[in-house]
């Protein structure tokens, strides 16, 4: 059977036409998909700008389905899920990204960072810790270490927190000397609570060496020395505190009275308190002077001012203070004494909020002074002064 060349001549144009039609169909499909994906993306962006997060998520899901290889859409979707509190879905998005073999190194680090944030927001601290540790050596290292510090502070794991603080200090990622001193003080407090006073004292000496301008280490050291029957050393520690960080003396005033009595330094303590009160009046220093029975040393003193309680009157002449007036009135005899209890009760009630301490970072108020704010978790955010004095 002879082969007819006419079929080849007819087949070549037909093949060309079929190929051209197929290419046109592919191009139309690609263009349609490309139009559909941006449309869904911009629709989601519009919803996001209008704070319609539910509709934005639906639009981004549609865009991801049309183009599953687009990493930016996955990141946007994961962030939206986390902002809405749908942490499980956010975790799945970031874990899907991490499972992709074609993901670049920078995107992998970004996905790992997003996963760590998901776990943190969900309160899964153990999984967050693991995810954050994988960010060592990445551009997110500093942020991850700060998050680890927050985790260890929250769980009161002070040795691990101190380790992270030392590493950040060594890497010049900030000055963490004051915070490291607090971690050492926390460890010392735990040891002192279990009567391990010598190890506690070693930790406090280290804290003083690391942050000599910090108030807490010297106060805590004086407490431990006093418990070890070394009241003389405890008194000298508080004298050093008054010289190095005088703003912290009001916090140490009650301890100073106790230590001075045990070490026979009552006169020296009175002179120290009087000197600092004259420089910077304080309600706590005022109460300590009254408790010591130290009468004001002034040439204008009259017999009526010879007792220590006249410090309250002198304080009123320097600063208007409801607290000082209330405390002075408590020991006075009124002309109509039958009304004194009711008046005193009202004044005590009115002055009680003025005796609180207030966090400078978040405004949280408390009756006791905190080194670590229970509201905003800031360190050293409570001034050593009462609300009335701010």
UniProtKB/TrEMBL annotation:
<dbReference type="GO" id="GO:0046890">
    <property type="term" value="P:regulation of lipid biosynthetic process"/>
</dbReference>
<dbReference type="GO" id="GO:0009898">
    <property type="term" value="C:cytoplasmic side of plasma membrane"/>
</dbReference>
<dbReference type="Pfam" id="PF18073">
    <property type="entry name" value="Zn_ribbon_LapB"/>
</dbReference>
<keyword id="KW-0677">Repeat</keyword>
<comment type="function">
    <text>Modulates cellular lipopolysaccharide (LPS) levels by regulating LpxC, which is involved in lipid A biosynthesis. May act by modulating the proteolytic activity of FtsH towards LpxC. May also coordinate assembly of proteins involved in LPS synthesis at the plasma membrane.</text>
</comment>
<dbReference type="GO" id="GO:0005506">
    <property type="term" value="F:iron ion binding"/>
</dbReference>
<keyword id="KW-0802">TPR repeat</keyword>
<keyword id="KW-0479">Metal-binding</keyword>
<feature type="binding site">
    <location>
        <position position="376"/>
    </location>
    <ligand>
        <name>Fe cation</name>
    </ligand>
</feature>
<keyword id="KW-0997">Cell inner membrane</keyword>
<keyword id="KW-0812">Transmembrane</keyword>
<dbReference type="GO" id="GO:0008653">
    <property type="term" value="P:lipopolysaccharide metabolic process"/>
</dbReference>
<keyword id="KW-0408">Iron</keyword>
<keyword id="KW-0472">Membrane</keyword>
<feature type="binding site">
    <location>
        <position position="373"/>
    </location>
    <ligand>
        <name>Fe cation</name>
    </ligand>
</feature>
<feature type="domain" description="LapB rubredoxin metal binding">
    <location>
        <begin position="357"/>
        <end position="381"/>
    </location>
</feature>
<feature type="binding site">
    <location>
        <position position="362"/>
    </location>
    <ligand>
        <name>Fe cation</name>
    </ligand>
</feature>
<protein>
    <recommendedName>
        <fullName>Lipopolysaccharide assembly protein B</fullName>
    </recommendedName>
</protein>
<dbReference type="InterPro" id="IPR011990">
    <property type="entry name" value="TPR-like_helical_dom_sf"/>
</dbReference>
<feature type="topological domain" description="Cytoplasmic">
    <location>
        <begin position="24"/>
        <end position="390"/>
    </location>
</feature>
<comment type="similarity">
    <text>Belongs to the LapB family.</text>
</comment>
<keyword id="KW-1003">Cell membrane</keyword>
<dbReference type="InterPro" id="IPR041166">
    <property type="entry name" value="Rubredoxin_2"/>
</dbReference>
<dbReference type="InterPro" id="IPR030865">
    <property type="entry name" value="LapB"/>
</dbReference>
<keyword id="KW-1133">Transmembrane helix</keyword>
<feature type="binding site">
    <location>
        <position position="359"/>
    </location>
    <ligand>
        <name>Fe cation</name>
    </ligand>
</feature>
